[in-house]
Amino acid sequence: MKKKSRFLQTPIEPFVVEEGLSADAVLARMERISFQGRNLATAHRIWQKMLQDNVTIFLGMAGALSAGGLRMIVAHLVANRYVDVLVSTGANLYHDLHETRGRRHYVGSSQADDAVAKFAATLEKRSYTSREFLYLLGGHLWEATGREGILTAAYRAKVPIFCPAIADSSIGMGLSQARQHVPGAGYIDIIGDIVESANLVIRRPRTASVVLGGGTPKNFINQASVQAEFYSDQVGGHSYAIQIVTDVPHFGGASGSSLEEAQSWGKLSTESDKVSVQADATIALPILASALAASAKPMLADRRMPAFTLDGIMTIDGQPVPYDRFEEVNEPAV
Questions:
Q1: 41-52 burial, b if ≥16 CB within 10 A, otherwise e?
Q2: Can you state the angle between helices 90-100 and 71-79, rounded to 10 degrees?
Q3: Is the pTM of this model over 0.70?
Q4: What are 128's strand-pairing partners?
Q5: How far is CA 180 from CA 124, 185, 193, in A?
Q6: Catalytic residue numbers?
Q7: Phi and psi at residue 130, in whole multiples of 5°?
Q8: Is the distance from CB of 266 to CB of 226 less than 8 angstroms?
Q9: Which of 101, 181, 193, 300 to pair with 332, CA 20 to 30 A apart?
Q10: Mean pLDDT by 10 residues, the chain (334 residues)
Q11: What residue ranges do the domains of the chain occupy?
């Protein structure tokens, strides 16, 4: 009898509507349909595998997701440790700050930048990585408002936030205003961010990446793995990768670059479990996060997540993570 082709092993199953299905049950059925529906279901399965594995999970956040209504989903993912490190554009963090202070985006306010400037002016006059500054800002915001948001959730859960393009945002504008009024204020060490993020990977070489919208956060997460590999041969690229993007690779931009392209640079392991979901994050993320909320509780309870301290020099699992030099694991070349 002729052997069945490998392409004829798993049949498509038409999606049958059933009243009362939970989000995780919907995605489980979508694994047997096609196109981006199946990719979204695959993203759910891969994220579950991340939570069951001993990996540090990076979340990248670009685009106007906070202003677009997704900030509390990201805060939920941070607070409940579905992720361990957040890398965001400054705009998303600024919009989160704005709403955590009780404002709305349709109102607008001339006071918001001033709030960042006033806070930065109270800090000790030295340079800060964006990670340390955002941790302190989250603490200040929590004490001032007691409201949930991305910055306050990260502060309370001790999840580091990096903002590699902090100058390209209203937070950066507020920092510049602080420097205008108080000499020595508002200095952010963005090169220290590179060193810290790479040292995180050196300390815990097995990593995973979830990217919403590409942009600077996507590249920053990936370059942390590449940079770390210069100093530790235990680093071999992310073990898992999910990206939810609307950009496409054929125009040459980094946001639309494929995960296969990332593998060619060593950003992902050649054995990585990965999926690209070509979809608007405002459609995909609410479904995915709701499915995880229903399916991942036992995984979160058993998860061996990294433990951070974030005030001053960062530590991970009790080990310091320097911002001024890379931790060299490899033997120096002779």
A1: bbbbebbbebbe
A2: 90
A3: yes
A4: 188
A5: 16, 8, 24
A6: 267
A7: -60, -35
A8: yes
A9: 193
A10: 72 94 97 97 98 98 94 98 98 95 58 78 97 98 97 98 95 96 96 98 98 95 96 96 93 88 93 97 98 97 97 95 92 48
A11: 54-321
